[in-house]
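pasting input
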Amino acid sequence: MAMLEVKNLSVSYGAIEAVKDVSFEVNEGEVVTLIGANGAGKTSILRTISGLVRPSSGSISYLGNKIQKVPARKIVADGLAQVPEGRHVFPGLTVMENLEMGAFLNKNKEENKANLKKIFARFPRLEERKNQDAATLSGGEQQMLAMGRALMSKPKLLLLDEPSMGLAPIFIQEIFDIVQDIQKQGTTVLLIEQNANKALSIADRGYVLETGKIVLSGTGQELLASEEVRKAYLGG
Ligand code: ATP
């Protein structure tokens, strides 16, 4: 059984059909990527999975349960965390306070402390800056904080929406290294990216979206080698 199974999903905003009959799955332990141009429907799919947008038709199963009508907070409590596009750290709160917000559902203080230690080991920059206002971090640091905050909830499935967007090349590589590291530690990842090259090179499998529809799927390596993908997304 797949950890996440999206079946015949359609999402509309009024007259705009942003997602059209999309089906895909994510198995436990995988990094799966959805790639596609601006407006292809990637974010709409993620927001529908995490319960922030309701589908017009289709179903979403997570850990064997249908969740397309379940409240977002209940989905998070069941171990599904999303890092939205554009970071969204809480300004006016320190790095430490932002991380603590990620763990608000877990009342086990010892567990949270151990988890925080792991996150600081993975993101040493966050530990150095733990007392700094999150709003004053650089873009790359804010991305790390948003990922660290999501990891504080110890997710089984992490949804990442364009984590490399707007970052300098050195940070981009670091973010993708961290995604691989997160997978190694046992978290399953659904990654949305416009940086198709990087996303496919670390993904087990991928799906290509065009104007709301899946037009290609395969292993990361297969898609990287596909002429169609190279022409449309890799500039070659
Ligand atoms: P990007 O890579 O640019 O973030 P995306 O693939 O994530 O794009 P979506 O954000 O899912 O694409 O948008 C898909 C389509 O749905 C777009 O045409 C967008 O304008 C439209 N859309 C998204 N959200 C809304 C909304 N709240 N109301 C109306 N239309 C929307």
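fyi The pocket of adenosine-5'-triphosphate is lined by residues 13, 16, 18, 36, 38-44, 194 (CB under 6 Å).
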